[in-house]
Amino acid sequence: MTDTADTAEASDFDLPQVHKHHVFACHTQRPPGHPRGSCGALGAQPLWDRLGKAIETEGLAEIGFTASGCLGFCKAGPLLVVYPEGVWYRPTTPEDIDEIVEQHFKQGKRVDRLVMVLTRR
Question: What is the pTM assigned to this prediction?
Fold first, then answer.
């Protein structure tokens, strides 16, 4: 027997449009002084609030925004990653968020000064 969900078309579901960019922002909040740190303890929430509001007020329906758990680089936060490019940003001020929205989301230009470079040791 075949489950109907296995053969259903995407159009059979109330799915949102495919996003031009999809942002995953770490919302992990560990207690102050935790040895791993966390994006939340480093001030992420006001930045993510600003990002969500900017996406909404600018009418950027093509930008998906998802609260994520730990992205694995806790002491480097606040962190967000933008797909499909796989660009990791490390914003620290409200103006950094504004720049990401304007440059990356609206103009398609990576904000190099805010990119977190991942290197192997």
Answer: 0.81
The DSSP annotation for 4-34 comes to HHHH--GGGS-PPPPPSEEEEEE---PPTT-
Q: Which residues contact 31 (CB under 8 A, 6 or more apart)?
A: 41
Number of structural domains (the chain) is: 1
- Residue type at position 99: E
CA distance from start to end of the chain: 51
In a domain, 89, yes or no: yes
| Digit-coded pLDDT (tens) for 15-72 | 556 789 999 999 998 888 888 888 888 899 999 999 999 999 999 999 999 999 988 8
Residue 85, phi then psi, degrees to nearest 5: -70, -25
Q: What stretch of H or E contains 88?
A: strand 87-89
Domain span holding position 71? 19-114
In a domain, 10, yes or no: no
**CATH code: domain of residue 73:** 3.40.30.10
